[in-house]
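Hey all, sorry for the wall of text incoming. These are the three entities for the joint prediction.
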Amino acid sequence: MMDNPQDQQDDTPQKKEAVPGLEDVLPLNAAMFEADEILPVPFSVDISEPQHKHIGLLERMLAQENEGTPPPAQPPKAEYHPDSFQRFLRLAIGLILILTITANILYSNRSPSAALAVPSEIVQTRTILRGLSSESMVLVAFDYEPGFSAEMEPLAAAVFQDILTTQAVPVILSTSPLGTLQAARLMQKIQPPTARQPIYLGYLPGGAAGLMSLTNSLRNTFPLDVDGESPWLPDSANPKLQAINSIADFAAVIVLSADAENARNWLEQVQPALNKTPFIFALSAQAAPLIRPYLSGNQLQGMIGGVIGAHAYQEPKQPNAMLQMTWDGFAAGVWVAVAFIVCGSGISLVLLSDPARKKRRKQRQKRRLP
Amino acid sequence: MSRIDALGLGFILIFAGGMLIFHLLIRKWTVFSFRSITGLARLRQRVLSSIEDGKRVHISLGKHSLLSQEGAAALAGLRLADEISRLSALSDHPAHITSGDAPVSILSRDGNKAVYRNMDHEERFDPCAAYMSGVTAFSYVAGSLAEVVDPQTAVNVLLGGFGSEIGLLADAADQRQTLTTCGTSSLAGQSVLYAVADQPLLGEEIYAADAYLQPQTTQTSAALRMQDIFRWMLVVLILAGIAARFAGVL
Amino acid sequence: MTRWITPISTAIATGVGIIVLVGYFVPAAWILDLRALFLRWAVILAGLTLLVGIFNLLAVHGRKVYSLNKESWSSLALIIALVGTAGVIAWQQTHSAAALWILNWILIPAESSLMAVLAVILIYAAARLLYRRKTVFSVIFLVTVVIVLSGSVPFWGTFIPFVHDRLLGWIISVPAMAGARGLLLGMALGIIATGIRLLTGNQHPYDG
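and here's what came out:
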């Protein structure tokens, strides 16, 4: 094994130069700095009275330290535990909500409690969906996740019942990874044995880019369905799909979405390519208000928003069973929430007027900041 | 090209030109000061003090697709994540980054790796520090909650495309009393944050976050300056439109 | 330090971005064809990255299992669930009975529970809002919440007059919508700025 060559050669540039890499610098000579004695330098310092006190304090502290008395044992730093009262309050809210909703679901008479005014967009949706025929192919997009099933399924059921009654064929795609499964679950619940089988195109990834691709070329975006077969061939399960070359060829396009941003993507990427094909949204309560302005711009032909929209959509003579089961519980839950918010706000105002609490709160907030 | 298309293209070109001019101006002569945004004011200080304390910063970038408009919020989060990763790279507990969108998670991992490479410490790069914690909104939140409530986590930065589920993360961070900066591009998410979080970032504030962490970046400053100018132009246009409507011109 | 690949990546990203953007405004056939091709690639890549993300998740939890700490058991459960579900989907169809069973009895209950927890958190947070932040805006926020909630559903079978008929619709379509549009306009400017920074190569989140 070879030694490092730099260790063997003393005449490397680094050794020659005083500062490595810099030429024309005088070399250091240790002998120059050898001193025989250290000369005392006379100096005087003026110390003020407070400085004297500080010196004395420091000397006392050092003396105490040297005495060897161990510092009193500090109690171990307690780990943070969430405020138990807060936890109790949350638990109480949760329990009261569960009890109220459950009691209302169990003991509900399941008849519409109050007649809702039916907005024009819901009337339009009904007209479009009930005007479909057995020749119609309807594109339905499932764009909600399992967490929103409780809200979205009654909506989807209301829409699908009309589609299935007219014997139109639903062509289902999903922009959420679990959308196809959600659609299959809904079909299992509401599909009568005589209804037409839907066609599952599958999952469309890529957000807005995926939707744009769908608009540009439907067949290239979905060359295969979920079963791995081409739905566009003449010998496929539903030969009527042969007539569909772009999304504008569908009798209607329906989007079931829980997210306003995703719904807006549909409006921006897909709607301009639809020409005269009706475009309908069934949205969650949080998304509906943000999409409503598009109705007045005529970019949307119909819309149902939230459980309330689904309640307004259903015919009083043919109530939606899935919706009837939850409507009373939903209404009761909303009123319990209102009661908690009003009472909580009132109590907060009373507590805030207490100066001692105010001080404690400020201290707590201060502690949080570094 | 229709009139609307021409208008759109013109808008983008003017915006880009303005950004370029401001970029050059700021680099040469001026140093702009930013208006105070409470949620961002102490972020750098908080991140640095958590590193000093031997604690970790957790950054969550949301679940919205990078290939949609909301992807811009994830990109703003990624810029911030890169800067925090740079600050904490050589500490005992480098930053952890979670997301709910696969392309965002790949980019966050890539950015994290680049930070170490630029520091000549690629061997310290941890491939598991940035990951996709779930595919659906709630599975992503459930996966990220583990990082939020981790005792090693002292600062939580929730910045990107979240829906209302951000309430779960912000509340968990609040319960653990960690320092939290949160903002989302979704309006539903913002309304939830207003109730749940102490100092949420609202509206376009999330796109300014990295400028507050790294104020010397001229590109971000130029972009913010152009946003301010265009915002005022829009305000004037809207007011002019209202006036014209009342006057019967429109 | 800039790697040799970074300028190439930036050039590709800028080129693809500009073609897709120009395709919006200039309806030339070759640009539209090229844009359609890039979008199809984007869709395929987005699907593939999902797989990469899932393998990454598997690696993260695999390491947690290996480290044998208190989180190991939950990580092990996640890996078993992930592999089991993938096995079921691979063995049967995407919308098979087994896949539906997983959706019905595991996914929907778990995610709905989180949604329910979120509802409790929101009620609690709204009730405490004035304690946290005593401002005029908090009061406006709470009053709006109460009006919208109480105007939406009937109370003992009857809708509250005026609140349900007029106030609710007015709040949603005038002040709430105006605020939402203001926020959206501000965010749109932020999105444009971010897009321009990407297109000009000012920001490139693909260094590695």
